[in-house]
Amino acid sequence: MTDLTSGSGVPSTRETWTRYGQIQLDRGYMPPVPERLDWGFWAGVGPGTEVLGPVRGKRVLDIGSGPGHHAVHLARDHGARVDAVELSPTQHRRAITHFGAEPGVRFINADVVEHLRAADPYDAAYGLRTFGCIDPRHLLPSLRDGLRPGAPLVFSALHTDAEGQGPSSVVVPRQGTIRIKGQEPIPSQGWALASQLWEELLVGHGFRVEESQVLHAPEPDNPVAVHLIRARRAPGTVGR
């Protein structure tokens, strides 16, 4: 992910996820390596890893890789060569502690925008629920330049939160909290945008949107929904 401060007293992205990672380190919690990528918060809801397309032997960027279990899935089960880029030093520590010697995965503790400035262009990129933590106007230009022409970009982001607050029609962050059972809520900020706005931003930054869908919680009384978008860097756009 990339580090941005709100100027309103809300912790920066780095501070939020460093605190989150430290709590999980203290708890000794590590999620298992999944059998597929779940783009929402619920196992088996919506499409899985297949929306990335074939990735065997390809260089793939994991944006905001957290404890690294998704990157390990892609390397082990699909033969991808994954650069797992994570801003939070504590989240990165979780990843290298458990998967530091994992073949096919390189764990990188860095701001993803800064990383992309120096990295060779990738064959694909994805982010599971991490795009809502990053100002898309800051991230998308670097992603366009950091992907090969025609390369897929697949990501998910919060659409409707636990209070039922739906997406915004303007690109502004909103304040929220991250909740861990038995812990004080962690203040955060994020971008939950309407489908049309996501499409306008992507097209305006050199991407072609191929599919957009909203994944809903399986429980009828749970208002949480996640937006899943599959796009592709448009050929002929400015970049490397």
TrEMBL record:
This is Methyltransferase domain-containing protein. One of its GO terms (molecular function) is methyltransferase activity. Pfam families: Methyltransf_25 (PF13649). The keyword Lipid metabolism does not apply. InterPro entries: Methyltransf_25, SAM-dependent_MTases_sf. PANTHER family: TRANS-ACONITATE 2-METHYLTRANSFERASE-RELATED. The keyword Transferase applies. CDD domains: AdoMet_MTases (cd02440). Residues 60-150 form the Methyltransferase domain. SUPFAM superfamilies: S-adenosyl-L-methionine-dependent methyltransferases. Keywords: Methyltransferase, Transferase.
